[in-house]
UniProtKB/TrEMBL annotation:
Residues 46-208 form the Band domain. Pfam families: Band_7. It comes from the Eukaryota. This is Band 7 domain-containing protein. InterPro entries: Band_7.
Length: 363
């Protein structure tokens, strides 16, 4: 006698018939004459971020179909259905950065973003330095049907592609160049094979984190020595650079101070010249004004004399005209105004007698 309740179901196999599923609370009797087997199975509980890939066989056409069962739900398969079982690379329990083929077996597919650690071992640089590159890969499934049709193990695809991309990136650089450019491994553009493969299998890699690298102890000691020497040289260089910068700053300050003094002297000279020019222009303007005023006064005096002379001449002419009208002989009148001398003495010398002394007495 076998019974079941809501979270369990019965799978019975009737002789010469298909399996039957009883998902309602019931009690069944295992009759060896009618049944081959009756088993009790728990119902599959799905969370909101889980998906089941279910295959079903049509008993009439014998055609197999596939569909996705999304959570949250409580799934009980039908008699002609079975679940897809995934066999992927899984993380080694002893080493989280090592993946073991086929170690991860499951039927519930996670549809939320996930990540895993992985180390790319035995990567050689251009100068033949051997190292290990530590990465962390973040991924998310975008198309489950496309993933089922194109790959059996997407984790294996991620590992192979990221290893190829890292080898291609590191092999072009020397050990020193890789150390200087190692941060570029955080950029997704340096993983072209990984990105292309993700598009092909329905996944998306959102980020690849570079977690560091590991080289041999001997190489690491050599690198540490080189770093120490480089740091020492860098400190010396920075000290010299600071000293030179201080000298340059002093010279620059002296030049700026000299330029400022010259500018102040030039401004003072320009100010004095401006004052002198203003004084000169004022004096010239004042002298010009005085000269103009003097010329005006002389012109007015000259005009006054001309006017006075003209008036005197007019009075004299009027007086002479009046004399004429009175019958006065104007010529005799004018001669009387200027009397002739009573005696005229004329001395004439000829030849050498001109040098003779002459003495004249006049009573």
């Amino acid at each position: 006698m076998i019974g079941c309740h809501r979270r369990w179901y019965l799978m019975s196999k009737v002789k010469d018939e298909l399996k039957k599923v009883h998902n309602e609370p019931s009690v069944h009797f295992l009759n060896p004459l009618d049944h081959e087997d009756i088993k009790v199975h728990p119902a599959i509980s799905l969370d909101a971020n889980e998906v089941l890939v279910v295959y079903g066989l049509d008993p009439d056409t014998h055609k197999v179909t596939r569909y996705l069962r999304n959570g949250p739900t409580l799934y009980i398969p039908q008699a002609n259905e079975w679940l897809h079982e995934f066999h992927w690379h899984g993380t080694d329990p002893k080493n989280k950065t090592r993946m073991i083929e086929g170690s991860r077996v499951f039927t519930r597919l996670q549809v939320i973003p996930d990540q895993f650690y992985y180390n790319v071992d035995e990567v050689r640089t251009a100068d033949d330095a051997l190292m290990r590159i530590k990465l962390m890969i973040f991924y998310e499934v975008k198309d489950i049907n496309h993933m089922l049709n194109t790959t059996q193990d997407p984790i294996a695809d991620f590992i192979n592609c990221v290893s190829a991309d890292v080898v291609a990136f590191v092999s072009k650089l020397s050990y020193t160049e890789f150390i200087e450019r190692s941060a570029e491994l955080n950029d997704l553009s340096n993983y072209p094979l990984l990105l292309d493969r993700c598009k092909m299998i329905g996944y998306e890699v959102s980020k690849v984190v570079f977690r560091g690298y590991y080289a041999s102890e001997q190489l690491q000691r050599m690198h540490d020595g080189a770093i120490e020497a480089r740091v020492k040289l860098k400190l010396e260089f920075e000290s010299e650079e600071q000293a030179e910068s201080l000298i340059d700053m002093n010279i620059k300050n002296d030049q700026e101070r000299a330029a400022l003094e010259q500018r102040l002297e030039l401004e003072d000279l320009n100010h004095r010249q401006s004052i002198e020019r203003c004084e000169h222009e004022h004096n010239v303007a004042l002298m010009k004004q005085q000269h103009v005023e003097a010329m005006c006064r002389r012109q007015k005096q000259q005009q006054a004399r001309l006017v006075m002379k003209q008036l005197v001449d007019e009075q004299r002419t009027a007086f002479y005209d009046h004399l004429v009208t009175l019958g006065v002989d104007l010529t005799r009148y004018l001669l009387s105004q200027h009397p002739q001398p009573s005696q005229v003495i004329r001395v004439v010398g000829t030849g050498d007698s001109a040098a003779t002394n002459l003495h004249v007495h006049h009573n």
